[in-house]
Amino acid sequence: MFWTDVDSPLGPLLLTADPDGVLTSVSVPGQKGGRSVQEGWRRDRGPFRAAAEQLDAYFAADLKEFRLTVRAEGTAFRTRVWAALDSVPYGSTTTYGEIAARVGAPRAAVRAVGGAIGANPLLIVRPCHRVIGANGALTGYAGGLDRKVRLLTLEGALPVVQGALPAPERALPVPERSLPAPRVIPTPPRPSTHP
Question: Which of 41, 88, 151, 174 could form a disulfide with 129 if both were Cys (CB 3.0 to 4.6 A apart)?
Fold first, then answer.
């Protein structure tokens, strides 16, 4: 396993890649379920050149879509949820219920969808930060709610908050009442199973 760290406005990012050099994770310090360097891993920036360049461009607001080869291991359900995350465009948000509908899960499966989103090993690259609550609330984020606010602000999905990007160590208040209604991506209607 290869690893490196990359500076970012969210703090240092830990990137890992498999033996073929394919990106397998992007983690932030203190991330719930995030990766940490293990014995036997090899530090090497080589496999991460494209990822580092694209992350820099993303944080400079010059890149709206990552074009990286990634590999994340997960159950078939998690893989479907992660693919649905990949379809949420830059600067937009969607809800857990909408993701459930996209993967063909019943509305009651929203918790399971939330668990799959929370298990996303590719923070930022796979945009789990673009998923919000049905009422527009900025619900949990494995990297921390302050980082979710920073990412959505960078993408223009939230209004600019003074100091939102430059100070990764400072948590930002999230006054839900003052936030504008997020732009939600509608789910296409399901085909009817009735004649």
Answer: 151
